[in-house]
């Protein structure tokens, strides 16, 4: 469900109920930029934090994606664990001046981000440095106070932006920031970063979100489990997951237009689906390792999608 200024009040009860009932929560932000890439990936963590703090102070959050998962069943005979999920995409518009980077605009435009809708209907907010409060601050306060585990992708960045824009100005040092997060997320309310798992546990060749979700990289003892792996486990009659998306809000007339369904199913007959023999040659190598093809606007004609990575 897309949450905008015009429907925020109507959605709020469902959003809050989903948050309070969730067994775990997934969060992803879209940002207006990250500043110097070299600085934000510096080897020294203090230098990296300093660059990230400056980026959070000068850039803004354009949308918050929240997915709330609730375990609703477990079948020993079918070896299936069933979850119900409610997804909210909140368009957020900072009410104070902020920097927008061309690369960020290019990335968002390529993924069909509607800037006109953001400007016209985004939920206005003021960063934590301002004295004015906003509904999104209340939401993040609820998020920080719940006990459900929080799942992120590149969570260091998202947590820094979330903390600065909706909770409190970022501390001066990395150590102080860690202490603040430890207070917000105690041991029984853990954080999990799928980007960290992809890079440091499964050693994937790329670690951006769509790749990690789609990649067929089965490892029996892995902590990480992709969409393709899950299907293979089901076929082999081993434990697997199913996710049901709650569409009850789409039945409400005032919210119906805000609901959208996205088909992310695997190819028919996966993993025995038909694969063109020359598909590997058609995939853009730049895109396959970094998500952003450097030659896309110079006439690159190769495939710029994640589906080819379903190749074993």
Automatic annotation (TrEMBL):
Superkingdom, taxonomy of origin: Eukaryota
Single Gene Ontology BP annotation: snRNA 3'-end processing
Stated name of the protein: CAF1 family ribonuclease
One matching Pfam family: CAF1
SUPFAM superfamilies with a match to the protein in the record: Ribonuclease H-like
Gene Ontology CC: one annotated term: Cajal body
Assigned protein family: Belongs to the CAF1 family.
Single GO MF annotation: snRNA binding
Gene3D superfamilies: Ribonuclease H-like superfamily/Ribonuclease H
Record-linked PANTHER family: POLY A -SPECIFIC RIBONUCLEASE/TARGET OF EGR1, MEMBER 1, TARGET OF EGR1 PROTEIN 1
